[in-house]
Inverse folding.
């Protein structure tokens, strides 16, 4: 893995163009199927133009998840239906990156329309985990985490609807943040489930993740859910947890949690205790309903959001047109993958007459109870700590044919999205050579405390210095 400081040192010793060119050479073979689109010409052009730029990311290469709008660079959401779509505008986060001098080297692979936990639903084939290419990198931001883990780029952007930044961060042994809902603008993020999703930064270490977060966070009037105000998050990079109170929710250590994962996370809690923190067990009784509520809400919102993809104005168009209904149906049938179709159908069913009260509105009530669980637990604690994922990365093909088993993998991440609180995943150990993720959750708009906790843990362990042996 590579860091921002290493990249900036290389730039000072040569040039941004040479560094970006070297980065593109690493990406070129696409050994792990991390990239859908490599923006070689525009990246080199930007690098030349950024010579002398004084921004915090001047000349630093970054990969962007393929559901974030990039002007002039193909954006497909890893779906056949959006093949060839080139956005005419930049997302808010892309504007921020360009202002900071970052160089976008391409768009990375993901689960189709961010629907998945393994990056196996992509129209462009699965991404491979650099730690073991027979395993998944997690999803849906699998390409974002894998490209950082493989040392192809130092930074990447993902999006997190139910764990889609934290899951691949855990499986790939990198650092990923899901911020408080509203802290990062969603303008230009192609929507899956509006009330749940947030763009999040991914990096090889906490300091780099925080610097990237600092660049892209902030108010945007084009997003009605964007929260006013600016913060300097890098001030939270302090090696000190003295007096910090950690809550450990027992519900996050239930059935299905791998023993090695449980041990590594508890070792992490005790390491922070050795550094001056204290811990206590907390109860979050409505956690058991989180998965069901999440999938009803997410699928319902997806059925509405994906109605716009019809192949009429952009994207997939079949050879022969018929009447509107026939053409529309044929394009969607051939353009969407199986998982996307499944979620659209289930969401449409949940919103249909006679069932909306039974499923969707009940799920919204459960969501409120889960949010109250977090608020109650965080009254007596500063942060909550739990496993990010119940197991290390599983094998390619192991769960993709069993959707319910795959959905169960999100058991520890979806409550965070339902409640809107911030959460970060960082490495805390290994099992059979595969990384294990520690999840640190905090109060709404208190990213500083989870960053400080994560930074302290990282600085007092050797886990972030390890990297996969990649070709």
């Amino acid at each position: 893995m590579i860091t921002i400081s290493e990249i900036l040192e290389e730039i000072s010793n040569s040039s941004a163009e040479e560094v970006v060119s070297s980065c593109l050479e690493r990406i070129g073979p696409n050994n792990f199927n991390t990239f859908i689109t490599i923006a070689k010409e525009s990246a080199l052009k930007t690098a030349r133009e950024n010579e002398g730029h004084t921004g915090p990311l001047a000349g630093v290469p970054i990969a962007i998840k393929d559901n974030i709008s990039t002007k002039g660079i193909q954006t497909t959401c890893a779906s056949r239906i959006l093949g060839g779509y080139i956005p005419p505008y930049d997302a808010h986060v892309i504007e921020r990156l360009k202002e900071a001098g970052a160089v976008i080297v391409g768009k990375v692979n993901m689960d189709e329309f961010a629907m998945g936990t393994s990056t196996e639903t992509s129209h462009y084939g699965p991404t491979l985990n650099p730690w073991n290419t027979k395993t998944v990198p997690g999803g849906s931001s699998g390409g974002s985490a894998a490209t950082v883990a493989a040392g192809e780029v130092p930074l990447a952007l993902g999006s997190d609807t139910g764990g889609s930044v934290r899951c691949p961060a855990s499986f790939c042994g990198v650092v990923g943040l899901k911020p408080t809902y509203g802290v990062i603008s969603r303008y230009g993020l192609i929507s899956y489930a509006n009330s749940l999703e947030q763009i999040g930064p991914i990096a090889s270490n906490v300091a780099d993740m925080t610097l990237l977060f600092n660049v892209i966070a902030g108010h945007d009037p084009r997003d009605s859910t964007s929260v006013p105000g600016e913060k300097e998050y890098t001030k939270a990079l302090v090696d000190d947890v003295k007096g910090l109170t950690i809550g450990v929710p027992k519900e996050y250590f239930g059935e299905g949690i791998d023993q090695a994962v449980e041990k590594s996370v508890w070792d992490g809690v005790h390491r922070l205790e050795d550094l001056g923190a204290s811990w206590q067990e907390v109860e979050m009784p409505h956690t058991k309903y989180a998965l069901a509520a999440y999938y009803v809400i997410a699928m319902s919102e997806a059925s509405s959001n994906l109605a716009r993809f019809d192949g009429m104005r952009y994207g997939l168009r079949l050879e022969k047109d018929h009447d509107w209904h026939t053409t529309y149906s044929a394009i969607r049938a051939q353009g969407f993958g199986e998982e996307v179709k499944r979620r659209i159908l289930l969401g449409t069913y949940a919103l249909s007459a006679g069932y909306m009260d039974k499923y969707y509105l009940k799920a919204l009530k459960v969501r409120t109870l889960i949010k109250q669980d977090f608020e109650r637990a965080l009254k007596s604690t500063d942060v909550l700590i739990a496993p990010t994922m119940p197991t290390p990365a599983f094998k390619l093909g192991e769960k993709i044919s069993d959707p319910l088993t795959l959905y169960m993998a999100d058991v520890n991440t979806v409550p965070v999205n339902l409640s809107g609180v911030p959460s970060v995943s960082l490495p805390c150990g290994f099992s059979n050579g595969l990384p294990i993720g520690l999840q640190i959750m905090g109060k709404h708009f208190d990213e500083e405390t989870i960053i400080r906790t994560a930074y302290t843990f990282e600085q007092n362990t050797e886990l972030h210095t390890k990297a996969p042996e990649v070709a």
About this structure: Residues 240 and 456 are 6 Å apart (CA to CA). Residues 1-471 form a domain with the Amidase signature (AS) enzymes fold (CATH 3.90.1300.10). The chain has a mean pLDDT of 96.
